[in-house]
Amino acid sequence: MAADKLRATVVMFASVAVILLPVVLWQAPANGGWWRVYLSPGMGVMLLALMGASTLVAYTLMNVWQPHLQPTHAGLIYCAEPVFASVYALFAPALLARLGAFAYANESVTWNLFVGGVLITLANVLVQYDR
Questions:
Q1: Looking at residue 80, what is its pLDDT?
Q2: Fewer CB within 10 Å: C terminus or N terminus of the chain?
Q3: Domain boundaries of the chain, sorted by first residue
Q4: Phi/psi zone of residue 32: left (φ > 0), alpha (ψ -120 to 50 degrees), beta?
C-alpha cells in the first residue's frame, strides 16, 4: 500500500514538472542564462535543501501517512505550516543567499509575526479539544 502512495507521489511531481516546463522555457531569457544558474554548486545545494527537505520529503510523508490520521490531527499539522514557515524565514533566507552569492536579509521578529504565530498555535490547540 505504501508503494502505491510513493508511486503516486512520483507521478504528482513528474506531472508538475512536465506541465511547468513549457512555462519555464517560455519565460526564460533568450541567451539560455537560466540553465547556467542551475549548474553552479550553490544553486545545487539550495535546490537540494528547498526541494528535497521541504517539498519531496514533506509531500511523500503526507501522501503515505495522511490516510492513517484523524482529520483534525491532519488539519493541525497543515495549519502549523505558517508557523514553521515564519520560523524558517528568521534564519534561512540569509543562509541560502550566501550559498547563491547574493544579498537577501532574514525576516525579523515583529509584534505582528509573534501575535500571528500565537493565534495560529492557539487555534490549532483549540481544534484538538472534543466538545
A1: 79
A2: C
A3: 2-127
A4: left
